[in-house]
Amino acid sequence: MNDNQLMNDSQLLREYVRMSKTVGNRADYVQGGGGNTSVKLSAGCMAVKASGFRLNQIEPDAAYVVVDAKAIREWYARVDLGEDRDFEKESVIAAKGAVVQGYGPQGLRPSVEAGFHAVLGNFVIHTHAVQANLLCCSTEGRDLMAKLFTNAGFPALWVPYINPGFCLTLKIKAGREAMQLATGADPHIIFMENHGLIVWGDDADTALQLHEEVNSRILNYYKLTEPYPAPSVKPVEGVDVTGMVGSISAAAPLLMSATPLVQAFLKENKVDVDFFERYPLYPDQLVYLNSGMIGEPASLKVFPDAEGGSVRYHAGESEALAMEETLLGYVWVMKTIRRVGLTLKTMSPADVDFIHNWESEAYRRSLVQKMVK
Ligand SMILES: [Zn+2]
């Protein structure tokens, strides 16, 4: 890489940091470690959020990795679904193998969603915006998207629910190409059913403005003017926790949900563990909330208390807050879908199984085989 390219890249990276922080500081756009962003650099490279970081932790020297996006695209172009291979696992290995050594922060893993970033435009923003998720988590969402966006001059693509990672990248790539072929328009907005939103633009501001426009259009359509609540947690005081579910793992600090909207919803709906299992809305809910409620008692972190209208967390403050953000997003989407008269669309049991068994190779193979048919 020559000096000019490096100078150009450092300017692009500054814009990338600004874009990531702008969306990353909004709890209505991303919750906990959710969402990811990327920018295309010179020589076919791409900076993409590193796995395990929050979007607003991205700095010129932190929380992203530089990958060879061209190599990732070539890998996807070579995929032959007719072969019985663990493409899910191989796609992760391909993304790791594409990390450019000695450039950008070192020793980090690219986001599992690096695949679709590689096949999209220059500045890509993927969030779990609660506004977009009103459409993504309702049966009317697809038609609403056509009405509010595609037919209003904002070509948008709808991607029916598909497992994150390898399969999602393939569907996004194929969906975009099919839309270009059929309509001549290149969609810069993607609604992913039971998941979230992707937008992109040629520069950071275009991408940011489009992201803002999409979400405010949905709010305006439903005349939702109340500000989005700030998520908060507080220490559990004056409560005897001995004997309560999870008290045996009470070595960690004990915090509880303190966001009024969340407390009211939990109480009205008598929300317990079963409620979360009955209404799985998107993968992040399963990863950050449900997995903290189910399993070995010693590893539990999230304790809904149906009677008390509360959720307690066995976690440090930042982790508890990340879970509260996820919970608030979930509650807001569910409550607002009901309020505006939409029909909730949950993930199917098979979709939920995939998320829980993501680590299992045999399971992933069987699913890719199904995709061929
Ligand atoms: Zn996502």
Summarize the structure.
This protein folds into two domains: 3-224, Class II aldolase/adducin N-terminal domain (L-fuculose-1-phosphate Aldolase), CATH 3.40.225; 233-339, no CATH class. It has helices at 3-24, 69-78, 87-97, 114-118, 130-136, 141-148, 166-183, 204-221, 260-268, 273-278, 283-293, 317-339, 349-356, 361-372; strands at 36-40, 45-49, 64-68, 123-127, 156-159, 189-192, 196-201, 233-235, 254-257, 302-305, 310-314.
Description of the molecule:
The protein is of the alpha+beta class and about 375 residues long. The protein folds into 2 domains: about 220 residues, Class II aldolase/adducin N-terminal domain (L-fuculose-1-phosphate Aldolase), CATH 3.40.225.10; about 110 residues, no CATH class. Helix content is about 45%, strand content about 15%. It has 14 helices and 11 strands. The chain has a 7-stranded mixed sheet with strand order 3-2-1-4-7-6-5, sandwiched between helices. A 4-stranded antiparallel sheet has the order 8-9-11-10. α5 packs across α8, α9 packs across α12 and α11 packs across α12. It is globular. The mean pLDDT is about 90. The site of zinc ion has 5 residues, from loops.
